[in-house]
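Weekly structure sync, notes
Attendees: PL (lead), two postdocs, one rotation student
Agenda item 3: pending single-chain targets
PL asked that the sequence for the first pending target be pasted directly into the notes so everyone works from the same version. It is reproduced below exactly as submitted, 261 residues in total.
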Amino acid sequence: MSPRKRRQRIRVLQYGVLVAAIVAAAAIADWGQIVDVFFNVDAARQTVADGLGSALLHTVTYSLGGFVLAFIFGTILGLMRLSEVGPYRWIARAYVEFFRGLPTLIVFIALSLMPLAFPGMSIPFDPYGTVWLALGIVGAAYVAETVRAGVQAVPRGQVEAARSLGMSSAAATRKVVLPQAFRIMIPPLTNELIILVKDSSLVFAIGLALSDFELTTFGKSEANALANVTPLVVAGLAYLVITLPLSILVQRMEASTAKGR
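Predicted structure, written out during the meeting:
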């Protein structure tokens, strides 16, 4: 038997095992119970009526605000990582390594407890400010690496050509390097936005009023009130309404970039 036919038979066998497992699971499942617990129509309608739209809006607001801060801080940190000044590189690298290794939940909790350590301290626009700052602090560490990689992907000849025209190093970076780098960075930055949308579910750690609930906290509250898992399923579908279009956008941008090469 040739290697090609052997691979084909192995693949057919794998597909057969998968289909058999699906059929067996479907046969033993209690579909009435599954539908009642996870896909209860009445519970879904109640979830929507109780404020799903408001929770969805809060999730988008938290995520976009955090992304804006992450983009600003991350761009600065990314340029610091590439700086010829040693202390700038050390500070930026220490920040990136620290917050990339720290769970986002801990940052949320730390920010919520800051007033205990510094009496009289308050974060503007709370709770939005606290959420934006927590997501921005963590997201900046990842955006910084994206910016660094994007800038390094720009051919060195572009900078040399700009300098030969009399541009200063700062002007060449601002007018030549960054515009090209940002086109390269758009797909990974969009992926970072998707991550922040999901990380916004951690705002439960700071304690929110009912009117400020995002999707996960809202879904959990509704699930407890209705004694049914359907609200969490509805909240999950609401997340997909946000993230799936972004994922499709990333795929199209990556395909477009590949064709351009």
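Discussion points:
- The radius of gyration is 24 Å.
- Residues 41-81 form the longest helix (41 residues).
Action: rotation student to compare against the earlier draft before next sync.
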